[in-house]
Design goal:
The chain has 202 residues and is an alpha/beta fold. Helix content is 44%, strand content 22%. The protein contains nine helices and six strands. It has helices at residues 3-6, 22-35, 82-88, 108-111, 120-130, 139-146, 152-162, 170-180, 183-201, and strands at 10-17, 40-46, 54-61, 74-79, 92-101, 133-137. Strands 2-3-1-4-5-6 form a six-stranded mixed beta sheet, sandwiched between helices. Strand 4 (74-79), helix 3 (82-88) and strand 5 (92-101) form a beta-alpha-beta unit. The protein is globular. The two termini are 24 Å apart. Residues 18-198 form the Pyruvate/ketoisovalerate oxidoreductase catalytic domain.
């Protein structure tokens, strides 16, 4: 990988719901990029402290001054919940890349019967209409296989790192997990990382 490719400017948009660990995943990926020698700016766009509220964050690579993202500007979108992926599509540039969980966490309105959760076929077709590359992964299920539903976030991060879309790979993410996550969380997240890597091989 040339230095020019490593320093290519890129905007990554993260979206999920409160309680999923979306911001933790953003921080981990930003630290991975820093360890890889990239210029990184990251920040929270919108966050809800209560469980179930929408959480949005960004990571900008390649020399941006502030973590600002407008509609139609994201090169890559990481969706930790499929409905939030659908809602976040306006931020993706035409031909951008979507990596999303396919495991739903219905919001309160759906649970109360006040709203209807769209079917996955609609969500996926909407994403494919905009994205040049699009992959939906059963992250929560794979996280459960690794030993913790929460580690499904690492499955998603690993898959996008393995895809070659980002200017660093799975090895860089693995090193960041070993360096920055508490020892008690490393084993399950390393298992999740391997499952995410296998998604791309499969």
């Amino acid at each position: 990988m040339t230095m020019q490719n490593k320093q290519k400017r890129m905007r990554v948009y993260f979206t999920g719901v409160g309680g999923q660990g979306t911001l933790t995943a953003t921080t981990l990926l930003a630290r991975t990029a820093l360890e890889a020698g990239l210029d990184v700016v990251a920040g929270e766009v919108h966050g809800m402290a209560q469980r179930g509220g929408v959480v949005e964050s960004v990571m900008l690579l390649g020399g941006w001054r502030s973590p600002k993202l407008d509609l139609g500007e994201a090169d890559v979108m990481l969706g930790f919940e499929p409905l939030e992926t659908l809602r976040g599509l306006p931020y993706l540039r035409q031909g951008g890349t979507v990596f999303s969980s396919s495991d739903a966490l219905p919001p309160v309105g759906v649970s109360l019967g006040k709203a209807v959760y769209p079917d996955m076929a609609h969500i996926e077709s909407s994403a494919h209409a905009i994205a040049g590359q699009c992959l939906f992964i059963p992250c929560r299920e794979l996280g459960r296989q690794a030993g913790s539903v929460q580690s499904g976030n690492t499955v998603l991060l690993s898959a996008v790192c393995a895809s070659g879309v980002l200017p660093f790979g799975v090895d860089a993410l693995e090193a960041a997990i070993k360096k920055f996550l508490p020892p008690k969380l490393q084993e399950v997240n390393l298992k999740a990382l391997e499952l995410g890597r296998q998604v791309l091989k499969g």
